[in-house]
Amino acid sequence: MSIAPPAPPSLEVLRQEIDSIDAQVHSLLMQRGDIIDRLISVKQTQEVGSAFRPAREADMMRRLVQRHRGILPIDTVESIWRVIISTFTYVQAPFSVHADLSLGEPAMRDSARFHFGFTVPYVAHFSAAAAVEAVARSKGDLALVSATSSRTPWWIELEPQGMPKIIARLPFIERADHPAALPVFVVSRVADSAMVTEVEMWSVRVSGWNAEIARALSPLAEIVAVPDTAFDGAALLISVTSATSLDHIKAALIEAGASVRSTALVGSHATRYTVPANGAPKS
């Protein structure tokens, strides 16, 4: 004698469950706000620079990716958490996002809105240097600058002690069809203890730069290069990971025929997660 399977729940019951979950999510967000309010009173003036905490945010996003499952796209979850984090950071210490539009506005605006939402003020600039300069004059604003190409060596301004530094690279979760796929560096002035140093960013100025040297260096590191005609060379922004070292890269430059004129650490950021076609994230 077969037993009939239980009848599926009605649409009304399922909708009531969704409404209940929505109310719980809203309640938890308000509870988070209450904790942030207490956090503000505890911190008072103890924080230095921006309230943006790259190391903590990288850890939060890693845990988010690792525990995610189900039909909800990871891009949606990433965006929701980015807006939650950024908005509550803004509540703690108001800041603006200064965006470099020199390589085009739509992609940069998409990145800013995806990662920082609509509560954080968005300020457009027509050059990377202008965005960085605005941040240098502020207490804790952020600049968003293209991470893959540039018309000017804007990172040179980050070399002196006390200047803002590169503190993050977005998007943190990368995949082929990411809705805010533009590679972006985040520049700000934050406490040393808040930095994450998995990938170091170095400003390197060389003489004797040419296409052959660029090809020789490309397997070793991500490099943004701007020609420096005054010295027949280039200003380089080099990403140095644990797989290599600055000394290794300098040796490769010299072996390829370049002369290293100067080096300066201009920031660092977290290793990014890459989500392959099968959806299993890896760093």
Describe it.
With 283 residues, this protein is of the alpha/beta class. It folds into 2 domains: 48-195, no CATH class; 201-267, Alpha-Beta Plaits (2-Layer Sandwich). Helices cover 37% and strands 22% of the residues. It has 7 helices and 11 strands. The protein has helices spanning 11-43, 54-67, 74-92, 105-116, 128-136, 211-217, 246-256, and strands at residues 97-100, 122-125, 142-146, 165-170, 173-174, 184-188, 199-207, 222-228, 233-240, 259-269, 273-274. A 5-stranded mixed β-sheet has the order 2-1-3-6-4, with helices on both faces. Strand 1, helix 4 (105-116) and strand 2 form a beta-alpha-beta unit. Helix 2 (54-67) packs antiparallel against helix 3 and helix 6 (211-217) runs antiparallel to helix 7 (246-256). The longest helix is centred in the N-terminal third of the chain and has 33 residues, at 11-43. The protein is elongated, with a radius of gyration of 22 Å. The mean pLDDT is 88.
Quick description:
With 283 residues, the chain is α/β, with parallel strands linked by helices. The chain is built from 7 helices and 11 strands. A hairpin with a 4-residue loop joins strand 8 (222-228) and strand 9 (233-240).
